[in-house]
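Weekly structure sync, notes
Attendees: PL, DS, HV (note-taker this week)

Item 1: histidinol-phosphate transaminase
DS walked through the input record. Source organism listed as Roseovarius tolerans. Sequence as pasted into the shared doc:
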Amino acid sequence: MIGPRYTSLVESLPANVPFVGPEEQERARGAPFAARLGANESLFGPSPKALAAIRAEAEQVWKYGDPTSHDLRAALAEHMGVALENVLVGEGIDGLLGNLVRLLVAPGDAVVTSDGAYPTFNYHVVGFGGALHKVPYRDDREDLGALISRAREVDAKLIYYANPDNPMGTWARGADVLAALDDLPPGCLLCLDEAYVEFAPEGTAAEIAADDPRVIRMRTFSKAYGMAGARIGYAVAATALIKSFDKIRNHFGMNRMAQAGALAALHDADWLAHVQAEVARARDEIARIAGENGLRAIPSATNFVAVDCGRDGDFARAVLAALVARGVFVRMPFVVPQDRCIRISCGRAADLAVLAEALPEALAEARG
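Item 1 (cont.): predicted structure, written out as tokens:
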């Protein structure tokens, strides 16, 4: 045999990625998007202080980044009210999820998630040979009680649950999440993805003790802090679990500029408040545009809005394709019945003006 000998697991996997990026779509269509409203990035940008810190740190790029991310972890520990040993920094939530699955999931091990929830988590589970068990949404919300019940039935090692949710933007009270932990089966860890929690109403973040061995919480600088391209996420969990990541993580995965920028962004509360206000205004505008076109916006606690197109998934896909053809990049849920919606990221006034112009035409084309 000439060439590499792949493992049987790798041989069984499809050669794909969870998302087709907007750049690839732009290359396929031969033109840039006029409005980039599909990836839940912050079109309002990062803190100017974060940009200044990144530029200053660029002169030190000849050095490796601190493999412990000490200064950023210390600031995050203070921000979260936990100990330094309870915090881990990684290459976005995606990177943290991959390492978490690698830590816990051997081939054949059961893992539970919602059918239609964040597909990158599924990508990691399948990539390590785990057995995915999926629970349907209930009323466009992830059903934590049903997830826990399924975990008990299949002896799952891990549950994935996002609050607020992606792709629907719905949310649960933190107190309800905390109460549900008492039903978690022994030996099962809840991965609580809080990527969008900075946009959510007060009381959404669950007040879970950092040393609670039943939960790992994950947050990011990609959304409210506007640093998606820097790839910075962080996890809060019991010390023993955080320490276990040192067995497998890429110890030089965090570059110097990203760490410096995140540290400055975390300390710029005024910019965060500015972005939160802009997102709230944009959510209202998306809802207004949807309503003007006879569509319903699902209430959102995130920086995007799921818009119910009022029919089935085929119709919503036709609407999405027509928007993309008109230079508006949006995405949609993948699973029935949530696939009746399209998902629109919050944007600036100019971005949403492009959407407002294109949506009536896209709907007419889809209906035609």
